[in-house]
Amino acid sequence: MRVLLTGHQGYLGTVMAPVLTAAGHEVVGLDSGLFADCVLGPRPADPPGRQVDLRDVTAEHVAGVDAVIHLAALSNDPLGALAPDLTYDINHHASVRLARLAREAGVRRFLYASTCSVYGAAGGDDLVAEDAPLRPVTPYAESKVRVEDDLHALSDGDFSPVYMRNATAFGYSPRLRADIVLNNLVGHALLSGEVLVLSDGTPWRPLVHAVDIARAFAAALSAPREAVHDRAFNIGSETNNVTVAEIAEQVAEAVSGARVVITGETGADPRSYRVDFSRFRAAVPGFDCEWTVKQGALELADAYRKHGLTREGFERRFTRLAHLRAASEAGAVDETLRWRR
Ligand SMILES: NC(=O)c1ccc[n+]([C@@H]2O[C@H](COP(=O)([O-])OP(=O)(O)OC[C@H]3O[C@@H](n4cnc5c(N)ncnc54)[C@H](O)[C@@H]3O)[C@@H](O)[C@H]2O)c1
Asked: Fewer Cβ close by (within 10 Å): the C or N end of the chain?
C-alpha cells in the first residue's frame, strides 16, 4: 500500500516508518517538523515526505494514497493545557479535515493514533475495555475523543477509520521524548542517581513500547476490513499495566545505584486506568506486544549512555513543551506554532 504517515518526524513516526517499509508498504511522510532536529544518536533516514502543517493539508496531499496513518498532533497533556484552543485546532479540527479529504480522495483505511488517556479518571483496579465510559480529564484527551466521534460519523462502506488507543509509549527512538514516564524516569536516574516520582506513585499507567505500537499499526493496516472497520482498540499488553511506583522500581533495577524517591508533591494523579488489551489480539490473531517495561528501561539506559544524553537534552530538546517554548521565545515559531520563515 501507499501509506501517508503524518507525524513521521515525531517520536513514534520515526520508529514506525521503517517498520511499515519493512512490511512492504510505500511510505510518504507529512509533518511540520517541529521536532525534526530533536535527535539523540545518529540522524534517522526519513522516508520521502513533505513539510506541511496539518492545518494546511489539501486534496493534493492525499491523492493516490491507499491508507492514512495519522500521528501528527500536539501530543501530550502539558501541551494541551498550555494552549487548549490550539490543541483543538490541530488535534481535532485539522484531523477531521484530513479525514474528510482522505475519504473524498478514495482512501480506504484511516488509522488514527488515539490514546488510553480517553479513559482518564477511570479509577479503581478494574480493567477498562474499549466500551468503558470515556472520561477525559485534559484538553489533549478530550481532543482525541472528539476526533473518534467525528471519524465514526465519516465511516461508510468505503472508508474505514480505526481508533488505535495506545497506552503510554516508552523506548528509544532517534527522535526521543524524555517527557513520557519511563523515558523520563530512566533519564533522571542516570543524570542524578534518583528515580524521581512527583505523584504519590499510585496511579495505574499502562505502557507499550514504541516498536510494539508500530507493529500494531502495521497489523491493523493489513487486517481484513471487517476485523477493524470503525472499531476502537486498546494497544498494549496486560503485563505492562503498572503503577507509577512499580515503573520506578523497574527503573531502579535497570540503572545500578539509582534509588527511588517518591515526593508525592503533586498528590494523587486523577489520570489512572488499568486496561484490557484483548480486543486487538482477538481481531488480529497472532499479534502480541513483545517488550516489557524492564527490557525498555534497560534499552533506554543503554541508549542514553551510548548517545550521551545531557541534562540540557533531557530538560529542553527532548521535552516537547520546553522545546516549543524555546522555539517560540527565539521567534522561530509564532503563537500558533507555525514557522515564521
Ligand atoms: N507517545 C505516546 O505515549 C502516545 C500515546 C498515545 C497516543 N499517542 C499519539 O501518537 C501520536 C504521535 O505521538 P508522538 O509521541 O510521536 O508525538 P511527537 O510530539 O513526538 O510527534 C508528533 C508529530 O506531529 C507533528 N505535528 C504537530 N503539530 C503539527 C501540525 N500542526 N502540522 C503537522 N505536523 C504537526 C510534530 O512535528 C511531530 O513530529 C500523537 O497523535 C499522540 O497523541 C502518543
From this structure: C
